[in-house]
Amino acid sequence: MHKLPKLTRFNENVLSKYRIYNSIFMTLPFDAITKTGVMLPLFHEVCENGFSNKKNPTEIVEDFFKAYHTNPSEKEKINLLFRFIQYIERQVVLFDAIEDAAFPIVNNMDGVGTLRNSKETASLENKKEALKKHLENFKVRVVLTAHPTQFYPGAVLGIITDLTEAIQQNDLLKINQLLAQLGKTPFFKHVKPTPFDEAVNLIWYLENVFYHSVSGVYNYIQSNIFDNQPIDNEIINLGFWPGGDRDGNPFVTTEITRDVAKRLKQTILKNYYRDIRLLKRRLTFAGVEESIAALEAVLFENSVSTEINTMIPLNEFLGKLNEIRDILISRHQSLYLEEINDFINKVRLFGYHFATLDIRQDSRVHHDVFVQIVKTLSEKGNAIFPENYLELSEDHQIEILSKVSGNVAVSTFDDEMAIKTLGSIQAIKTIQENNGERGANRYIISNNQSALNVMETFAMFNLSGFNHHINVDIIPLFETIDDLTNATSVMEKLYANPVYKNHLKNRGNKQTIMLGFSDGTKDGGYLMANWGIYKAKEKLTEISRKNGIKVIFFDGRGGPPARGGGKTHQFYASLGPTIEDEEIQLTVQGQTISSNFGTLDAAQFNLEQLLSAGISNELFSNANNIMTKSDVEIMDDLASTSYQAYVDFKNHPKFMPYLECMSTLKYYAKTNIGSRPSKRSSSKELNFADLRAIPFVGSWSQLKQNVPGFYGVGTALKKYEDNGEFEKLKHFYKNSDFFKTLIGNSMMSLTKSFFQLTEYMAKDLEFGEFWEIIHTEYQTSKRLILKLSDYDELMQSNQVGKASIVIRENIVLPLLTIQQYGLLKIHELQNEENPDLELIKIYEKMVTRSLFGNINASRNSA
Questions:
Q1: DSSP calls for 733-766
Q2: What is the mean pLDDT of residues 161-182?
Q3: Is 191 left (phi over 0), alpha (psi -120 to 50) or beta?
Q4: pLDDT tens by residue, 396-441
Q5: String of DSSP letters for 668-714
Q6: Under a CB-based contact definition with an 8 Å cutoff, are residues 739 and 575 in contact?
Q7: How far apart are CA 718 and CA 392, in angstroms?
Q8: Which of 342, 488, 592, 776 counts the highest number of beta carbons within 10 A?
């Protein structure tokens, strides 16, 4: 039992330790600049006082140099500011490591939202059998994506892992060495990673964290809920996008897709080899020793090279392990039975694939490719498609697409995108042959707008040799507000197609549908995106049930609330019976992987939270999860009002110029953190449609304005205040878990905002009025959310979460100041008659470098 309050545990194990280790860190001899460690706290104090006195970042930086330096040159100023950036980046790493080390102390690993708590609640309510029955079918799928939000290079992530361990052990000598190593390890990558590099970086988490945490959670369920009986359900599945996600990434090739699949198989076999070596040291008994040795030999051979493929079939491998298990029971008093059971479970969970490699491409690319396929086949005399196919109606095209089949060679085509797209479909076959069907059995169509988009993909599979035996789930992704609204009619048309319906029958009468929070929020604002997805899920559940189909929702979520992040498990626990919930599937990316799944404790805790959310929704749901007619009317009205406010804001003539001129938007592409381009088209002109959600949300975060997480919320709430109906809203907030979760996540966005940083913009001749629009909406949202929740301060019910944010924001305050100073200097230099281009480059580098520490400190800001 934890006797001390959670906030006290946080202060003692995180805040106090940070202060101690930071004092060691600040005195390490990193560089030749005198007293940098002493200067940074002084600069921090000048920043705090400056913003309190409404000074702008340029005045603050100049005040600091006047107070603590005698006539420094421009070069000396710049050098010191760069050193500050380096120091602050490493302070953030230190805080991350300390917080990770304290995770199992600060968080109650057996408390609410854990499996133990769910099991005990089920026992108390006489629902243990119902819990078992639910877990026979319920699944959680965590899909790791390569979205560029991880600003820590691999070497630094390794230091965080080692530093976390050293802090847990209070090993001062090792901590000192690691801090010194950290001071000399570069954060900035001079070249972009390839998609394969990204895959290798993320496979580290599979190998070192998920392999152990997923099997640990599964073992707990088997022993404590299923009384050690076999479970015919993996319960936790892992997905993987690096190397398979082609959407907007021209660098993902068919060869890379195949190489990533090989690397996944090689890595899981390496993990099996390590485990079987340990088993070999224990199982030294007659009847099992030889079998273990034979398995060790074949695992070693196949784990040292991706080119060797002599692995026995998976069923045979499992059969041999079960034979060993039976001998242990019958002849050796079940000695080391727990260890062999653990290994068998791992092989069942991870097979030869480790994680399922999803393939994804944009529907517009598919359509262009399909036009090329039809034209090329027609030119070469192939009569698969009628000559007038491209002029036919959508319904007639769908009818033809339902029936086509063949094995068209990729070499038939000259078009590069057609070759890549068909190549990736054929790669799925190769991967399934080597890694098993689970190696690659999902194809996602992003920006899906019609049934034709799905059927074009369906036809491409049948033209690539699958011949109506497609052992792959075809998954439409609905992203924009319009697409979410149209999703029901799209799926109705597909369900009405007998050929597609037969495909679903062969896939267990299940249809996975992906819904995009990031682009939905970018398109329609925070409330409308979340409510639009909720309503789409309800309608899709209804029509799927009507057609005898079990719909599975796959949520494309980012880190921050503006991209579907925040308290994700609370969101799932708040969904009612009108939304299908047999599986929880979600993307996890970049920072969210390292912060939520970076250690064994954090991964176990967050996996259990997701599992418990699904359990709670099914077994322990309450009236607060059910939307009444009145609730729906209120949400419709709030979403509609906020949507109009957001669209008006988005259509403001200064919207794009503000982002381009006053934010760090254009610097994201220079960070070299991901292989994917920062916008969808190669056009030099910046337009909203091409803008990706990550740099869009991240740029607002760098400004400390966090617009996508709150804009329109204040306006929507104010309508009720103005109409004297605020009590109705308060009643809704009190009785709806869904609305409470939405508002709670918006609070997080508001808490991370700091408008004093950019208050100088209010006086800007071009953008002053626009800044005031944002600031007014922030103030309105904050005031009315506090009024709605009866809180005195934001995040009042999550004191530890707030305390962590406050410390992190405090650490990076000088970094934010330097970033704004750099932007102001660039503007100043660009307006000179003869601008110093070299000096502009230096300040641009300063702004780019400042992104890293700010993003890492926020942990879920992009």
A1: HHH-HHHHHHHHHHHHHHHT--GGGGGGGGG-TT
A2: 90
A3: beta
A4: 999 999 999 999 999 999 999 999 999 999 999 999 999 999 999 9
A5: GGGS---SS-SBSS--SS--GGGB-HHHHHHHHHHTT--GGGTTTHH
A6: no
A7: 50
A8: 592
